[in-house]
Amino acid sequence: MKSMDALVSLCKRRGFLFQSSEIYGGVQGFWDYGPLGVELKRNLKDAWWHDMISGHNELVSPVGAPSTFEMVGLDCTIIMHPQVWKCSGHYDLFHDHMVDCRESKKRYRFDQVRGRFVEYQGKKIFVSTLAEIEQEEDEVRRLGMKFFKLRAKNADELTVEKESLTLDKLDSTENVLAPDAKTLGTLTEPREFNLMFKTTLGALGGEEDTTFLRPETAQGIFVNFKNVVDSSRVRIPFGIGQVGKSFRNEITPRNFTFRSREFEQMEIEFFCHPNQSQEWYRYWRDRRMAWYTKLGLSSESLIMREHHTEELAHYSVGTADIEYAFPFLPEGEYGELEGIAHRGDFDLRSHMEGKLDPATNPMTVELNEHGKPKHRGSGKDLAYRDDITNEKFVPHVIEPSAGADRAALAFLCEAYTEDEAPDENGKMQTRTVMKLDPRLAPIKAAVFPLVKKDGMPEVAQEIYGALKEHYNVFYDAKGAVGRRYRRQDEAGTPYCITVDGDSLTDKTVTIRDRDTLEQTRVKIDDVVSEIQSRMKANA
Ligand code: GAP
Q1: Which of 88, 250, 264, 401 should be mutated for ligand 1, with most atoms under 8 A from CB?
Q2: Does 341 have pLDDT greater than 80?
């Protein structure tokens, strides 16, 4: 299993990720991308935007697609009319279950606190902890020993069960030792907690001025559906994509950036005829899975988890999650990277008629105690008229919804590799290398003069200048060349170009491949086209 600690330390050391506001002690659930991280995440979002939106050819039907289709983009605001969140269902339903500890006054997400049963002299208790999975067993043992006041020499008298469980899997919390408590049974019953961040519009600050930071980018797309249809002449089937920040006040943000309070989503709302929605659902599910493997996630670490029929809303024919075996999860467990959901006509109709009641079939508007819509819709007609058949209908929606930060984390986890490579003296040494796909790599190539004399820096700088017009490249003339290679391996740079003594006479340089370590001599004049053709081969 890859070590999460080693990856987290590399991310900080090399400038992929920093804790937000670190000099003030940090703030939980918020992360900053450093100079390498920002390039990685930008490359990831650009790859998504290109592959899903700008590079899509609407004249050709892609393999597996029921027909040709169009794709356009949007960039909506983070703060929207408060009614959006009432009709979308987030105001009433977007919550997690949390428990409070009466002793420590801390609050936890019920389904995310893990622990194990421990037993001492016939007394069995459940010890919970927020420790990462790698440290969990040791931490449970330490807390169990402390609870039973055992000394190190009596450690054998305490048994710790192998199975790790979350609190929601227990019948009762009576015998639970909460993560920060000294006594048993201090946790309250689980309660609902809305995850939306509240904010206030304007200076008056009354209840009617309350609105929310968006918890998903999707709603901006639904409320602009008519604007897009009227302004861009798209015809169904078509998709609208958006990349942007979302905010959720997660109760227990954890596992590095996996569960953050501020994160970015890459979402598509794909509008189609209700009769074709099943086919489109299957198409998007398979297409999105293939996107991750093409960019380097190994298919052994990825699964497609179809939701069971009882998990689905009745209007939905399917929802599937693409999940990755993140190293911080127990063996055999996977974390969600993306959800592909069939949302029927729930969203467009809710924004038209008023929030629908998902428990009704066919769905009707949810009413309050006065028999009026609980949350009023916009009253705008969001139905679509096919200009060829003249049929009018409310489109069904397939939603592939991905997290940019989770995807970046998965690619970082997958890329982290320790292998052996010879140093400058030919001695084998352990090297840390980030085997990122060249499309995602923050730096595409590094250019080194072997030494800082004999005209080598001048030649190297010329090559650097020529490459910089196309790619983010790096110039480094400092220190032993072996050490310069190692730094680029850790940054995930796929190619290193070295100018040496021969370069001045035979006008060639070496290109070293990060993964194979193969060194090829290439004419100086061909360096740019060589890097371009290697980058294209990987695209
Ligand atoms: N519009 C549908 C929607 O938002 P979701 O499953 O709640 O669906 C979609 O979120 C994706 O957003 C997830 O698969 C995940 O990649 C990402 N995501 C959700 N919550 C997140 C969080 N707290 N931190 C990081 N990424 C998150």
Answers
A1: 401
A2: yes
Rounded to whole angstroms, how far apart are CA atoms 127 and 136?
A: 10
Interval 290-310: pLDDT, tens: 999 999 999 999 999 999 887
What's the distance, CA 273 to chain centroid? 30
Task: Identify the residue whose tokens are 């063996």.
Answer: 331
Tokens at 101, concatenated: 């500890």
Q: Report the C-alpha gap between 415 and 433 in whole angstroms.
A: 8
Q: Provide the whole-model pTM.
A: 0.90
Query: Which atom of ligand 1 lies at the shortest distance from residue 401's CA?
Result: 9
pLDDT > 70 in the chain, percent: 99
Pocket test for ligand 1, best of 242, 263, 305 (most atoms within 8 A of CB): 263
242 Cβ inside 6 Å of ligand 1? no
As a whole number of angstroms, the distance between CA 500 and CA 509 comes to 7
pLDDT above 60 for 1: no
409-438 confidence digits (pLDDT tens): 999 999 999 998 877 777 888 999 999 999
CA distance 130 to 166: 11
Q: Rounded to an integer, what distance in angstroms lies between the CA atom of residue 336 and that of residue 419?
A: 29
Distance 93 CA to ligand 1 centre (A): 16
**Phi, psi dihedral angles at 531 (to 5 degrees):** -65, -40
pLDDT digits 0-9 by tens, 236-279: 999 999 999 999 999 888 899 999 999 999 999 999 999 999 99
Cα(215) to ligand 1 centroid in Å equals: 9
Q: How far apart are CA 52 and CA 371, in angstroms?
A: 43
Answer whether 474 contacts ligand 1 (Cβ < 6 A). no
Question: Does ligand 1 have an atom closer than 6 angstroms to the CB of 255?
Answer: no
Contact (Cβ atoms closer than 8 angstroms) between residue 101 and residue 178: yes
